[in-house]
Amino acid sequence: MRTSLILSLLSTALMTAGAASAQAAEGRFYDPTNAASSAGKTIGHELFGTIGCPGRQLLDPACPKPPADTDGDGVIDAKDKCPTTPKGRKVNAEGCELDGDGDGVVDANDKCPTTPKGHKVNAEGCELDSDGDGVVDSKDKCPTTPAGRKVNADGCELDSDGDGIVDGADACPTVAAKTADGCPAAPVAAVPKKLVLEGVNFDNDRATLRPDATAVLDKAAATLKEWGDAKVEVAGHTDSNSDDAHNLKLSQSRAETVRSYLIGKGIAADRLSAKGYGESTPVADNASAEGRAQNRRVELVPQQ
How far apart (Å, rounded) are the C-alpha atoms in residues 155 and 170? Predict the structure, then answer.
């Protein structure tokens, strides 16, 4: 009996000493304070790491800590190909953000998340519209429309009057006219059988125009423009003074002088021809000075 009592006291003393020794050596297992913890004390898996795992003895090795997931996207760092994904973003099995339409812009930044596959996009994930007309390039049949022009659903400029000239280049966009500027051509004036250029005079026996002839010729040029594209002969005539050969040559020179002047005023050269008739077609009697003055003339004769 006495021996049993002694053994019992000795066993108790040894256990107390062992516990005290363990507390002294491993005091951190019993100190729950933790300045690094948001709660100010050791919690969660940190607690298990401190006092052991369930089912383990007090002084057994601590629980292994879970693998790190720095960006908190559910994919551990060891397998995360995008370890800095912003918080809250959806990711794939590799830890990278989703790009539903595969255009290279992640869904969180994609303003057009359903872009058809293979279409080029801008930084916002929307299809390109190179000419800025509101129609994306993949649907734009006129991808180089000048800036500011109105377009149809195909991205092509409007042609409101249907004359083949787009509104942006049509000076008369509400009137159909197949002309260079889209406007109806000016009405063509009635073309007479001939126009005598009264007042077009030359120096004596020469083809040099007198200064007072220019006003008449300027008016004649304006008249020719009103005649549209009519081709016209510039006919020169003389009186009967001098011989026929001389008068024929002189009338030809004077006709060519008038033709050149009219071309210089904007009349197309291919509309005008020059021909001298000499004294062969008088309109008055060459016996009088008045009659000879009438015979010295230049005429514009439309060609049928």
Answer: 18
